[in-house]
Amino acid sequence: QVHLVQSGAEVKKPGASLRVSCKASGYSFTSYDMNWVRQAPGHGLEWIGRVNPHRGSTDYAENFQGRVTMTTDTSTGTAFLDLNSLRSGDTAVYYCAMAGHHYLKGSLDYWGQGTQVIVS
Amino acid sequence: DIQMTQSPSSLSASVGDRVTITCRASQSINNYLSWYQYKPGKAPRLLIYAASGLESGVPSRFSGSGSGTDFTLTISGLQPDDFASYYCLQTYNSARLTFGGGTRVEIK
């Protein structure tokens, strides 16, 4: 059974850096991209980017270019989201998500539980 | 990037109502479109994959249709548990996924 378990809530100062982890289990970690999505108060769901654990390649949304880095540790099956130069607008719940059964069409059927991040 | 225009942004409905939410893509995305339900404090839940496929475990009152640029999510017989926000997501451009703006379904 697939499980994505994220790290705990964070409170950060403006200008600081953030790292959120997502530990995967129940499937071949290197076979599927890991996506990151956030939901800020009063805003909708926003795709941040994705990382391919096998190749280490990444794609980022334009809004985050230059501030975000996504990596993986294949030895532990963990994906990481790093976001720097934090500002109040980065206050959000951050999710990792992957397309498992529906990888051909990319539908995200597995999600982490979310990590609350407050920048204040 | 492919833009996803979702409407309405919010709606009020009663239990038992039929609800329709639409998403329009700025270019053809074939059927690379999925729908999600979101409740605060919970992870988004996949409802519909590949525009019209019902995800396992999702009640049959949820249905999706469309292809190309225009897509619809229908809830036939709204239930109390369905009051939530709904989002479409295009995955045609897998290097730049984009969500619709969301639809908040509220109790009338």
Your description of this structure?
The complex is a heterodimer of chains A (120) and B (108). Chain A has 120 residues and is mainly beta. Helix content of chain A is 0%, strand content 48%. Chain A has strands at 3-6, 10-12, 18-25, 34-39, 45-51, 58-60, 68-73, 78-83, 92-98, 110-111, 115-119. In chain A, the strands form two sheets. In chain A, strands 2, 4, 5, 6, 9, 10 and 11 form a seven-stranded mixed β-sheet that branches. Chain A is globular. The termini of chain A are far apart. The mean pLDDT of chain A is 97. Chain B is built from no helices and eleven strands. Chain B is globular and about 35 Å long. Chain B is 0% helix and 51% strand. Chain B is mostly beta strands and 108 residues long.
- List low-confidence stretches of chain B: none
Shape of chain A: globular
| Biggest sheet statistics of chain A | 7 strands, mixed
Q: Could you state the oligomeric state of the chains shown? A: heterodimer
Structural class of chain B: mainly beta
Q: Give the tally of β-strands of chain B.
A: 11
The averaged pLDDT of chain A comes out at: 97
| Alpha carbon gap, first and last residue of chain A | 37 Å
User: Would you count the extended β strands of chain A for me?
Assistant: 11
Strand residues, percent of chain B: over 45%
The helix/strand series of chain A, from N terminus to C terminus, equals EEEEEEEEEEE
Radius of gyration of chain A: 14 Å
Unreliable sequence segments of chain A = none
